[in-house]
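Intended use. Records such as the DUF2996 domain-containing protein entry shown here are meant for training and evaluating sequence-to-structure methods. They are not intended to support clinical decisions.
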Amino acid sequence: MADESTPKAPADKAAAKKAPAKAKKAKPPKLEDKPFAEFIEQHFLPAVRTALEQEEGLNDIQISFETQPINVIGVDQDAYPQVIGRWAKGSRQFNIAFLEDSITGPKIYSFATDGATPSTIEQFMGDERRITLDLMVLYVLRRLKGQKWLKGN
């Protein structure tokens, strides 16, 4: 028979008061943290296509992700991953070249009409510190609107 006058150890009291620890739910990774090519092909291209079709009324947009030299007069012939958008029976084209295999790395934008070789490149999203899918799509739309290539211009 156990002696009831023996005090319980303090560790037993502390263990009894603590509630079991709740397991933290693992957050799914952000879209922007996915591998570069997967993010571009599975998320960015469809989002740009949807924005141009539904918001801007383009019905013949062709958008692709290719690695090729930057087709601008006077630029070296190194191949870079690029998002290429064409519409109006191919008479309008924009390119976004990624100089690193990353959405946060430097990016450049070029455009051309009627199958001509682009003669100008410009920085794309250079001042942004935090890059998100929605922000990238917004910048594409803003740049095309600035070019007066979308409806309402």
